[in-house]
Design brief:
Helix content: 25-40%
Shape: globular
Largest sheet: 6 strands, mixed
Mean pLDDT: 96
Low-confidence stretches: 157-161
Number of domains: 3
CATH superfamily of the largest domain: FAD/NAD(P)-binding domain
Number of helices: 12
CATH architecture of the largest domain: 3-Layer(bba) Sandwich
Strand order of the largest sheet: 3-2-1-7-19-18
CATH topology of the largest domain: FAD/NAD(P)-binding domain
Structural class: alpha/beta
Strand content: 25-35%
Length: about 475
């Protein structure tokens, strides 16, 4: 019997940790037994693909799964589905678990990895008196959520009006992607957000995104909070806002963000940060033989110099892999985050790519920088090429040091992934002048002579 590694959570971080641990143990000729508890029936799936599955752009939930449960087991993982960890005893080194059939068990461990992810924030008004979600109201977070929406869309009985009406609550990444899904499904779509659309962007860039969605027929309601929902006799949801407005809907998608699923460890006394995520060190360690990885954790923000909660699959996979190395004696370190992210809004008549990295102007001010920003209009290809689409690049730098602080991009086809150049510059702690002078590729179908992101950096450098 080898050393028991118990992992709670079988998605990106948990399974990355489990398999890397097995690989590293094999190389070190060290015997380990890796047990994974997962409360659902799904493993290793792309949560980022769920809005596109809901939209009908992906054929099946199975297409989002990187590895099936049987594949994990064949690779040496003792995977136990439908099993929820309900308590940790750090002194006894045990986890209490409850199976979906009600069977309780206690599982011992030598080392423990918490990879419990994040849970959607659901407004109180979205639930009935028993705590269940109202019919036709759900998040867009898990594969179970996706299955629910696919059933709703397949069941014409759910649509009791000639006009199918959908409301998205939340204007962040998930909100924009959910609005795209409803538009793809032919709904009259409202997007309701308590602040701005994509409020982590500077307001000038946020306005561009909002305008594009409005032009495509989405009714965007900013600075709006839903306080109450009534269910009419025909099943229509009547949403009442704090400002006294009402919105009628057949379906309501909740995209108001997520919070770390850290209650299990918090109840056991494990360290929790200001954002309620697990407070690990850069080896992903919480305590002696106790680790955590993924969306249940906070991560060090390299530009803000403090922890942030930035739940992304990229971070989860890296942190899980680091855990896997370190569980069997390695010394890998997680280098931190920049807040790099990308999405799009796409329909038959609109395509806008949305990306950012680093700090916004507001965040830079909070840290103590003196941010100066400039938006530069450009193109993704030479003006005479059919491939060309517009791109607006918003660059932010510190007035005193000329340090690049952040970049935001809103544009057409092939605009968004240019953000990775800016992320590389931020990772290397470059000045805005350095980005302007980098040796980047050029050919008319792919870029202008001054690549759009460099043109933005050059003009901001000139302004400084």
């Amino acid at each position: 019997m080898g050393e028991r590694i118990l992992v709670v959570g079988a998605d990106a971080a948990g399974m990355s940790a489990a398999h890397q641990c097995l690989r590293s143990a094999a190389l070190a000729a060290r015997e380990v037994d890796v047990v994974v508890l997962e409360r659902t029936c799904d493993t290793s799936y792309s949560a980022c693909g769920i809005p596109y599955l809901v939209a009908g752009m992906v054929n099946s939930p199975d297409d989002l799964s990187a590895r099936t449960p049987d594949k994990h087991r064949a690779m040496g993982v003792d995977l136990r589905l439908g099993t929820t960890a309900v308590g940790i005893d750090l002194d006894k080194r045990t986890v209490d678990a409850l199976a979906s059939d009600g069977t309780a068990s206690t599982i011992g461990f030598d080392q423990l990895v918490l990879a419990t992810g994040a849970e959607p924030i659901i407004p109180d008004w979205a639930r009935d008196r028993s705590g269940d979600l109202l019919p036709g109201v759900a998040a867009v977070k898990t594969l179970d959520d996706a299955r629910y929406w696919l059933e709703v869309f397949a069941d014409s009985g759910e649509m009791r009006s000639n006009r199918r009406r959908g409301v998205v609550i939340g204007g962040g990444y998930i909100g924009v992607e959910a609005a795209e899904a409803l538009q793809q499904r032919g709904f009259d779509t409202h997007l309701v957000t308590r602040s701005r659309v994509m409020s982590t962007f500077d307001s000038t860039m946020s306005a561009r995104i909002e305008e594009a969605m409005i032009d495509d027929g989405v009714t965007v309601m900013t600075n709006t909070v839903v306080e109450l929902v009534e269910i009419a006799h025909d099943g229509t949801k009547i949403l009442h806002t704090a400002g006294g407005r009402t919105i009628e809907a057949d379906v309501v998608m909740i995209g108001t963000g997520v919070r770390p699923a850290s209650t299990l460890g918090a109840d056991a006394g494990l360290p929790i940060g200001d954002h309620l995520g697990y407070l690990t060190d850069d080896r992903q360690q919480l305590g002696e033989g106790i680790w955590a990885a993924g969306d249940c954790c906070e991560a060090y923000d390299r530009l803000r110099g403090k922890n942030a909660f930035l739940p992304l699959g990229t971070h989860a996979n890296k942190q899980g892999r680091i855990c896997g190395f370190n569980l069997v004696g390695g010394d890998r370190r997680f280098a931190g985050v920049l807040g790099t992210a990308i999405t799009r809004y796409h329909s038959a008549s609109a395509h806008i790519e949305i990306a950012r990295t680093g700090l916004s102007t507001t965040q830079a001010l909070e840290v103590g920088y003196q941010p100066v920003s400039l938006t530069t209009e450009g193109g993704t290809a030479s003006g005479y090429m059919a491939e060309r689409s517009s791109i607006a690049t918003h660059a932010i730098a510190d007035k005193g040091t000329r340090k690049l602080l952040g970049v935001q991009i809103v544009g057409g086809t092939a605009a968004g992934k240019r953000i990775d150049t800016a992320a590389a510059a931020l990772w290397g702690d470059m000045a805005v002048d350095d980005l302007a002078e980098m040796d980047l590729s050029y050919a008319p179908p792919f870029a202008t002579v001054w690549e759009a992101i460099q043109l933005a950096a050059r003009r901001l450098a000139d302004a400084l």
